[in-house]
Amino acid sequence: MGVSHPAFVSFDRVSLAYDEASGYAIEDITLSIGPGEFIAIVGPSGCGKSTFMKLCTGLKAPTQGTVHVDNKKVAGPLKIVGMAFQAPNLLPWRTTLDNVLLPLEIVQPYRSKFKEKHDEYVIRARKLLETVGLDGNEGKFPWELSGGMQQRASICRALIHDPELLMLDEPFGALDAFTREELWQVLRDIWQEKRFTVVLVTHDLREATYLADTVYCMSKRPGKIIAKREIDLPRPRDLEITYSERFTEIVHELRAHIGRVRKG
Fold this sequence. Notes:
- This protein is of the alpha/beta class.
- It has two domains: 1-80 and 164-264, Rossmann fold (3-Layer(aba) Sandwich), CATH 3.40.50.300; 89-163, no CATH class.
- 34% of the residues lie in helices and 22% in strands.
- It contains seven helices and ten strands.
- The chain has helices spanning 49-57, 96-106, 118-131, 147-159, 177-194, 205-211, 245-263; strands at residues 9-17, 24-33, 38-42, 64-69, 72-73, 81-85, 165-169, 197-201, 214-218, 225-230.
- The strands form two sheets. It has a six-stranded mixed beta sheet, sandwiched between helices.
- Helix 2 packs parallel to helix 4.
């Protein structure tokens, strides 16, 4: 079930137009995400899912309406956010360990203490890498890692500075089915332990159903929320639940919403 209020993230009648000629990318979105809640956003390509993420993190300002995160109006890029994308975007000249440490070199208050607390930060990074099954790979470069291993490192990099809000934009979309399901479980376990707030953008309805507390379906551009589905499956969720009749019913329900959007 969804987490109760007060909201950690709230959108109030939010619309965004990149320019007058192209019209609205998203329109009139109102929703609330509770602290520690895991939500997923699904919808057809170009519906504004990634635009939603940019508004959430302060990378874009709304044309209309307001966005609040942690009871503050978003007025610029937020420091409390971790982000991971479909492409791991690891720096090829840095080792796995150094890629994971990168946010601590950039984000305050860690940046000013990086040299002083370097050993402490290395221990933190090694612990995260061990959590995702990458212990022993700290000294390897990105080209020495498989796609799944690179994405595990990317998730560690997104989490190294203990963000309160984790934004995931199709993070497993380029991986094979088995690796994708492995990483669902890795993410599930880290979230169960730390309980940060998560916004997952995905095309995979099984992924959304397995991981999220609440799934929002978006319409074609201009993107609007056309359905909200609380996922009433018990936690912690084992992968076996994805083969259950109840799980399949929820996926079919979400698919029906998307199907109506595509035909409309």
